[in-house]
Amino acid sequence: MELAERRGVETRVYEPAEDSALLAAVAGERLGSDARVLEVGTGSGYVADRIVREVGASVVGSDVNPHACVAARERGVAVVRADLVAPFADDAFDAVLFNPPYLPTEPETAWDDWMERALSGGEDGRAVIDPFLERVGRVLAPDGVVYLLVSSLTGVDAVVERAGEEGFSAVAVADESFPFETLTVLELFG
Questions:
Q1: Residue-level pLDDT at 6
Q2: Minimal CB count within 10 Å: which of 25, 29, 45, 96?
Q3: Residue 76: other Cβ atoms inside 10 A
Q4: Is the Cβ–Cβ distance between 47 and 167 less than 8 Å?
Q5: Long-range Cβ contacts of 107-111 (<8 Å, 24+ apart)
Q6: End-to-end CA gap in the chain
Q7: CB under 8 Å to 161, separation ≥6 — which residues?
Q8: Strands (DSSP E) along the chain, which ranges?
Q9: What average pLDDT is seen over the chain?
């Protein structure tokens, strides 16, 4: 890919930041090398790549953004263009990781570019989290686990409540505070 084309892809793909590093660290500490893992919203493939390299687990990434799929493939991640967990088989994964778009955004904010979609979680920050929680249980193997990164801006208690409505128990397994928010990784299990 030409450098100019590559720069265009990078501006349309969420690059790893503190949230990505936190999710990768938590999952890396908790997953075994025999785990079958799905990373929803893989973006650049940073988290999936770290889990493969550091843990040796089998990881598939998915993302609705075609530019993210290209970036993750270039990193060596097996990736599928998908909306959340739609194309995956029932009971296929021991763990699902997700760093969703969670920033609350005004209703009039247009979702007209890929970076906006990677960041914007709708008015309450849960526009993508809620459908994910509705669907993720289908692809989890018995005794499977979800590692979901959420922000205090999104309302961690509201996410935990919603997870409960979908049959999950939730435990906060890591927190990291910043001047404008606290990031929390929730471990969800059935």
A1: 40
A2: 29
A3: 12
A4: no
A5: none
A6: 44
A7: none
A8: 36-40, 58-63, 78-81, 93-98, 140-151, 169-177, 182-189
A9: 89
Interval 155-174: pLDDT, tens: 999 999 999 999 999 999 99
Q: Say if CB 40 and CB 98 are below 8 A apart.
A: yes
CA pair distance 6, 99, nearest whole angstrom = 23
Angle at 155 between CA 36 and CA 138, to 5 degrees: 30
CA–CA gap between residue 15 and residue 121 (Å, rounded): 17
pLDDT given for residue 152 in this prediction: 93
Integer Cα distance of 3 and 20 in angstroms: 25
The superfamily in CATH containing domain 3-168 is: Vaccinia Virus protein VP39 (3.40.50.150)
What is the reported pTM? 0.89
- Enumerate the domain spans of the chain: 3-168
Per-residue confidence (pLDDT) for residue 121, from 0 to 100 = 63
pLDDT of residue 8: 45
CB 182 within 8 A of CB 133: no
- The secondary structure of 20-65 as a DSSP string is HHHHHHHHHHH--TT-EEEEET-TTSHHHHHHHHHH--EEEEEES-
Q: Which two tokens stand for residue 136?
A: 């993720």
Q: Which residue bears the tokens 């995956």?
A: 88
- Average pLDDT of the residues in 90-111: 83
CA–CA separation, 158 and 67 (whole Å): 31
Q: Which amino acid is at 67?
A: H
